[in-house]
Design brief:
The chain has 279 residues and is mostly helical. Helices cover 77% and strands 0% of the residues. α3 (57-65) crosses α13 (243-278) and α4 packs parallel to α7 (140-165). It starts with a helix and ends with a helix.
Length: 279
């Protein structure tokens, strides 16, 4: 391949990546712009990207109309708890799936694949009846249980791939030194899985933080509801949105997951690079 052709291909790749970034950033930037616009600009026939008279009234109105802080606390408790429990359960199970090939591992892999094909509507009625019998309707623990079960298949699939990337020779060396299975998993395998565990926990957290359907069905009282459900309260009886406060509340609801991903992403990359250097 000639040098001009190589440069043209690289330029095309950068342009395609830039277009994709613009496509991803557009909804967030428009949401940010809408959150700071006064009511007069929101109803304008000629909308602008940058608010001409930026205001914080939409944020004040959003907090006055709905219990956003309580909803954020509920979402945080549910998302963090679901992520931690899913990772604690998935790590040893993924290790067994990756290291011991057999009927159990094959069945578990099949469950991972099949469970991802179930639509929410198909499982919500039996799920509601089960939680009702357990007296977990309208409780955060019931919602956390649902989030853990729903995120486990993908968590197992992710972590099993990371386990397979760990050289089996390290475990054999630990066994020669007298370490048992549990100690090998905790002291040898788990530290090498740190980037994968963080990535899996991040996936489970964001999934639970943004989830709407289960929270809508299982949580009834406003003081127990999560942020995605509370956001629907900015819609009027006829489906007309209170656009300014809705945009402000949605912007605040989006920030935690974005900041968490930006904070952890550097550590995931750093952990992978350190692992490659040690290898």
């Amino acid at each position: 391949m000639s040098l001009p052709t190589s440069r043209a291909a690289r330029t095309g790749q950068y342009l395609a990546l830039l277009a994709y970034l613009v496509f991803l950033a557009f909804p967030f930037l428009w949401l940010l712009s809408t959150a700071f616009k006064p009511a007069r600009e929101l109803g304008s026939l000629h909308p602008t990207w940058i608010p001409e008279h930026p205001t914080l009234d939409n944020f004040r109105q959003a907090f006055d109309e709905q219990p956003l802080l309580q909803a954020a606390a509920n979402s945080l408790i549910a998302a963090v708890s679901a992520a931690l429990i899913a990772v604690v359960i998935a790590t040893p199970v993924a290790y067994v799936m990756a290291r011991h090939r057999g009927r159990l591992a094959t069945a578990a892999t099949g469950w991972v694949v099949v469970s991802q094909a179930f639509p929410f509507v198909l499982v919500i009625i039996p799920l509601f009846l089960v939680l009702k019998n357990l007296q977990l309707i309208n409780t955060l623990w019931g919602l956390i249980l649902v989030y853990v079960v729903w995120s486990l298949p993908f968590a197992l699939w992710m972590l099993a791939g990371y386990v397979r990337a760990v050289p089996a020779e390290l475990e054999e060396a630990a066994a020669v030194d007298g370490a048992g299975r549990v100690r090998t998993l905790v002291s040898v395998v788990a530290p090498l899985l740190a980037p994968g565990i963080v990535a899996t926990a991040l996936f489970a957290f964001i999934t639970a933080w943004n989830e709407f359907f289960f929270a809508l069905v299982l949580l009834k009282t406003p003081e127990k509801q999560t942020l995605p459900v509370i956001l629907t309260h900015f819609l009027g009886a006829e489906g007309v949105a209170d656009l300014g406060p809705l945009a402000a509340a949605a912007f605040l609801a989006t920030l935690p997951s974005l900041l968490l991903f930006a904070f952890i992403q550097r550590r995931i990359t750093g952990g992978m690079t350190a692992g490659a250097v040690r290898g």
